[in-house]
Amino acid sequence: MAGIDAALRAHLEGGLTTVCHAWAILRTDGVRFGFTDHDLPLAFEGISFRADTGLSALALAQSTGLSVDNTEAVGALSDTSIREDEIEQGRFDGAEVIAWLVNWADPEQRWLQFRGTIGEVRRAGASFRAELRGLTEALNRPMGRVYQKPCTAVLGDRNCGFDLTAAGYAADLPVEAAEDARIFTWGDLSGFDDAWFTGGRFEVLDGPARGLWGIIKRDRFKDGVRSVELWEPVRGPVTVGTLVRLIAGCDKRVETCRLKFNNFINFQGFPDVPGEDWVMSVPKSTGRNAGGSLR
């Protein structure tokens, strides 16, 4: 039990102990949850830990070195703690999880046992099982750049550098008509060319689905009606009057970066990389070996 403080170590070595486990879940949207297997609530580090939620964790698998630590959390779905609809909406995806061993008689005596994030969440009836991934899980991510013609940046990220708040590239407006939380239509959406939002983002700004988003599959203007279709339905209720944001799409081509966004200086692809035909090219006495198609 490396890293345990002297007071808690002395308590554990005393024979009669008053310890329990406590878990905190810190979602990416700022919502925080606290749970404990003690029969009374606890509070420390600005978090209230509920005792009536039915959440528990299986044995922690921890190791030295760079191997991945992992465990599972199991619990019951309820309206007062973890709700089924929030799991379905992905609200807990990537949330930070912190687990302590706590002396419930003196919560200042505690030991940080686990810190990581939530991975896969599986639901079965009225309960759920969530995979907990340790801090070393991040070392499994591939690093480096891909040598390809299209841009590898995400529109608006640090590498792209484009300001999505610039006039003409986003629209905030209430939904006028919705179908299956996937197709949305407006009678008037002037100022944007046809297919301007294809490949862009659809973000929900208010209501129960606030914070959810999807990728726009198709943006069409026909017979005076603007229709925006997503690749997948929004995993939450988006009804008439819900405020949403449409963000212009980028197909990663150099022409789009230069002409649509005027951002060619930050283009993250390699537009002049030779194509596959260049590998098959052979010297010839006529024409130029320019890396184009062989004919």
UniProtKB/TrEMBL annotation:
<dbReference type="Pfam" id="PF09356">
    <property type="entry name" value="Phage_BR0599"/>
</dbReference>
<dbReference type="InterPro" id="IPR011928">
    <property type="entry name" value="Phage_phiJL001_Gp84"/>
</dbReference>
<feature type="domain" description="Bacteriophage phiJL001 Gp84 C-terminal">
    <location>
        <begin position="196"/>
        <end position="277"/>
    </location>
</feature>
<dbReference type="InterPro" id="IPR018964">
    <property type="entry name" value="Phage_phiJL001_Gp84_C"/>
</dbReference>
<protein>
    <submittedName>
        <fullName>DUF2163 domain-containing protein</fullName>
    </submittedName>
</protein>
<dbReference type="Pfam" id="PF09931">
    <property type="entry name" value="Phage_phiJL001_Gp84_N"/>
</dbReference>
